[in-house]
Design brief:
Layout: E1 19-22, H1 27-38, E2 43-46, E3 64-67, H2 71-76, E4 86-89, H3 96-101, H4 103-124, E5 128-133, E6 144-145, H5 160-179, E7 185-190, E8 193-194, H6 205-215, E9 219-222, E10 228-230, E11 232-233, H7 234-245, E12 253-257, E13 262-264, H8 265-275, E14 282-285, H9 287-290, E15 302-303, H10 306-312, H11 320-342
Bound molecules: nicotinamide-adenine-dinucleotide.
Length: about 350
Amino acid sequence: MPTRTPKPTPTRPANAGRVLVSGGAGFIGSHLVERLVDRGDRVCVVDDLSTGAEANLARVRDRIDFIGQDLALALSGDLAGERFGQIYHLAAAVGVELVMNEPVRAIETNVDLTAQVLRFSANTNTPTLIASSSEVYGKPGKELFSEEDDVLYGPTSVTRWSYACSKAIDEYLALAYAREGRVPAVVCRFFNTIGPRQLGDYGMVVPRFVRAALAGEPLRVYGDGSQSRCFCDVRDVTELLPRLLGEPTAAGRVFNVGSDTPITIMQLAELVIDTLKSDSTITTVAYSDAYPGGFEDLRHRRPDLTRVRDAVGFESVTPLVQTIMDIAASVRQGASLEAEGGA
Ligand SMILES: NC(=O)c1ccc[n+]([C@@H]2O[C@H](COP(=O)([O-])OP(=O)(O)OC[C@H]3O[C@@H](n4cnc5c(N)ncnc54)[C@H](O)[C@@H]3O)[C@@H](O)[C@H]2O)c1
């Protein structure tokens, strides 16, 4: 396990301009906003709070501009004609369950918003980071995923692939704007990112396991649990993003972002129980029961991090056990706030 501490995010010059973060009240977005504010940026957040929460921004709320609105409306309304030094576009319909349950909303949100952000950025040639996903790789039948690999999806009748395709369209568009010299866009393909404030309601496995372990309920492992993933702490990810967007040679390129240390989902369930000293048991659930509409899971998914390491240097340094404890603390804090609110 690497032990390096994350490098401090470099300070930006005072005249570098305001920074726009779409989806900044969400899980990854709120951690990014904190980091940008801490280094002295003037940050404007646009978030419609569909899956995000203003409470996620509590620590920096009085130091940011917050527009609690649909991003498309904000870009054509309050923000029309504004200039930003950088734009981070994280707003999206996120998570496999959301995509399975509300496919129209998910496809439209992911494609339309990115198109509008890039048009907005093109007005002022603003460096723009587009959040994509490892889902873009589809089901390539191998374990290690590199940015220039072919992608392979299932048929369009299988809803699951619509998320991957919507993010792939976002990438094509961002790269096209970059190629035409209209936006210095950087695409980040996030692999599994975890940490405090992530919702378990949208099928995210780690917060789901942590909540079950804290409640003493069984941890539900889909399939036999031998499938593996690499989990990266959100604070390692958000340390990287400003460095990547500030690196001129990153423009017009796609980067895998995540950890490359795999763990099986069964081992993860055991680690959560062990770390939280929970009495919970583990039950396996057939995919057909977990997803009655049908779902194709990938056996293994590991990023090749050569490109991001070569570009700006990157290691995920936060131990998984630490992240699990921090998620548990945030779940407990959320529960006590709910109890206070309901009292
Ligand atoms: N968390 C991960 O492991 C992961 C993995 C791959 C990709 N990503 C990508 O990273 C980005 C951030 O994901 P996250 O995990 O923080 O999810 P999240 O749901 O916490 O964040 C998304 C934010 O966008 C906001 N939003 C949605 N639609 C909006 C709209 N129309 N207008 C304004 N705001 C809107 C939501 O309210 C939310 O705050 C997304 O683009 C996602 O696809 C995340």
